[in-house]
Design brief:
Elements lengths: L15 H8 L1 H34 L18 H28 L11 H31 L2 H26 L2 H4 L7
């Protein structure tokens, strides 16, 4: 049989796993506490976004035609952007709530910190940022119905700046995927 099939013991008759569990108990407790706090915060924000997104997707801007039952603003591009972005915000905010609940109900054992918990956290935070961006796009598209024709182009540049600079750019450096990969070491 190959040697890696056998469990190896040190001079105190302990395996490497037993030593690791004992020496990292404090780290596992602090990590579990941090994950719970982060999950609570994310779930609150995601629930608020889900509430707003559900309201915006259920409330159609403008009136509804009496004969056909279709929205009067249906042929405008802003209406399509509004509808799609509010739907995206709703889906991703619900995903964030589910991932937060999965993190809150996990066992927080040392083996979970290597792969399972970081993936759930990454999925939840990514979904949260996507839902924030989508609800902001929905809000901006809703403003196009209210704006006068002269102000639409000014508002468009402000909205584009807001969506890109304040939402998309800070996300990129915050997700160091290599940190979550198995076997990654600190430099």
């Amino acid at each position: 049989m190959p040697m890696h099939f056998f469990v190896r013991y040190n001079k105190d008759n302990r395996t490497a796993r037993e030593i690791f569990i004992e020496t990292h108990k404090n780290l596992v407790e602090k990590g579990g506490e941090w994950l719970n706090n982060t999950s609570n915060s994310c779930s609150i924000v995601a629930a608020l976004i889900a509430t707003i997104a559900f309201t915006t997707s259920a409330t159609i801007p403008g009136d509804i035609e009496a004969e056909s039952g279709k929205p009067t603003l249906e042929k405008q591009h802003a209406f399509n952007v509004f509808s799609i972005s509010s739907f995206i915000a709703l889906c991703f905010s619900v995903t964030t709530v589910v991932m937060s609940l999965a993190l809150l109900t996990s066992r927080h054992q040392e083996k979970d910190f290597s792969r399972d918990l970081p993936r759930k956290l990454l999925c939840g935070l990514s979904s949260l940022f996507i839902s924030i961006t989508a609800i902001l796009v929905s809000f901006c598209a809703g403003h196009f119905f209210v704006m006068k024709d002269e102000l639409k182009y000014v508002a468009f540049t402000i909205y584009a700046d807001d969506v890109l600079c304040y939402n998309a750019i800070p996300i990129i450096p915050s997700f160091d995927i290599g940190y979550f990969q198995e076997g990654a070491t600190k430099k």
